[in-house]
Every structure is written in structure tokens, then in C-alpha cells.
Amino acid sequence: MDVNKFVGEVFDAIDNMDADRFVMCLAKDAVFRFGNSPAITGTEDVSRVIGQFFRRVNGMRHNVMEIIGHGETIICKGKATYIKKNGSEVTVDFSNVWHMSPEGKIQVYLSFADLRKVFEA
């Protein structure tokens, strides 16, 4: 697997706010967890929740600054810029840890970012 290409595909789907394309990168029974939120299991539920999140912002873009691939694990970190509903932009640091399935899809997706400023008035 070309790790850099795969990471680019995942974030392209996210930045285009395309929940269907995003979950195509996940194993069918994937576990998705954002920060301290409860884990979501399965692409159907992940797609629904990610779609709800996408509707809360006008857009986003990720600048991946580091990618580490080790065995079946990919770690990436960078800056994410969110366009709020009022048109202003907020940039935050993010880190993701992905555990990959044997089929080359994300089995466990752990995402860490402080989004408080994105959703405050």
C-alpha cells in the first residue's frame, strides 16, 4: 500500500465532505472514535454521524504535516482549518491513529482535535 496516497485519498474525501467516499476507506465493521466521544461501529453509522458533522460546518481543509506508517498502523498529524457557518475560519491541530485491516482499509479510526472553537458562537 502507498501510505501517502491512501492518507491523501482519505483527507480528500473528508475535505470534500463526502461521507460516502470517506466510508469507502473503512472496513465494513470499522470502529470510529473522535476524542472522548463514544465509539461508532460500522460504515452505515459512521456515514450517518460524519454526514451530521459535515452539515455543522461550511467546509474544511486538512494540511497533513507528518505521516508515520508502522506495520498495520498509520499515524498522521497536521492542521485542520474549518469554515464555520458564519464564514470565519478556525485552524486546529489534529492527530489520527488508524489501525488497518488486512484488506488495506481502516479498521479502527481514532481522531484527536479540540473543536471547541469551531462550534462556539
Description:
This protein has 121 residues and is α+β, with helices and mostly antiparallel strands. The chain has one domain (3-119): Nuclear Transport Factor 2, Chain: A (Roll). It contains four helices and six strands; from the N terminus they run ααββαββββα. A six-stranded mixed β-sheet has the order 2-1-6-5-4-3, with helices on one face.
Distance between the termini: 42 Å
| Largest sheet: spatial strand order | 2-1-6-5-4-3
Which series of helices and strands comes N to C? HHEEHEEEEH
What's the CATH architecture? Roll
Number of helices: 4
Uncertain runs:
none
CATH C-level label: Alpha Beta
Helix content: 25-40%
Instruction: Briefly note the CATH topology name.
Output: Nuclear Transport Factor 2, Chain: A
Query: What count of structural domains?
Result: 1
General form: globular
Rg estimate, integer Å? 14 Å
The pLDDT mean sits at 96
Largest sheet: 6 strands, mixed
Strand portion: 35-45%
**What is the number of E strands?**
6
Secondary structure blueprint with pairings:
Elements: H1 3-15, H2 19-23, E1 26-34, E2 40-41, H3 43-54, E3 59-70, E4 73-83, E5 89-100, E6 106-113, H4 116-119
Parallel strand pairs: 1-6
Antiparallel strand pairs: 1-2, 3-4, 4-5, 5-6
